[in-house]
Amino acid sequence: MNAEMKLEALVLPNGKAETVQHGITCILDEYNPWTCIKVIVTDTNNVNTERKNGAVIQLQRLFAQNKLEVPDHVLTECFAYLWITN
């Protein structure tokens, strides 16, 4: 069964990739859906999509470092969320 769960709206002090990644990681640590995340969906903002150190790449590295399935990245025009399955 696939389900969409909205966990939090992040309030961040700046728009840096590290800040975005850290904010998302804190939410994931709090709710612990790490093993259920299959897709990261973001807008096309460079902070999210930068190939070497964007927020998505940083999150995908964390998944790999923790020996978890690395979620795919899907681009959209207007929002960001994580696709979580049970």
Q: Main beta sheet: strand number and arrangement?
A: 4 strands, mixed
Structural class: alpha+beta
Computed Rg: 12 Å
Q: Helical proportion?
A: 25-40%
Share in β-strands? 15-25%
How many β-strand runs?
Answer: 4
- H-E order: EHEHHEE
Q: Provide the low-confidence segments as ranges.
A: none
The span between the termini is 6 Å
Strand order of the largest sheet: 1-4-2-3
Q: Count the DSSP helices.
A: 3
* Mean pLDDT score: 85
Quick one: overall form?
A: globular
In short:
It contains three helices and four strands, in the order βαβααββ.
Task: Characterise the protein shown here.
The chain is α+β, with helices and mostly antiparallel strands and 86 residues long. The chain has helices at residues 17-31, 46-49, 55-65; strands spanning 2-3, 37-42, 72-75, 81-85. A four-stranded mixed beta sheet has the order 1-4-2-3, with no helix packed on it. Helix 1 packs across helix 3. It is globular.
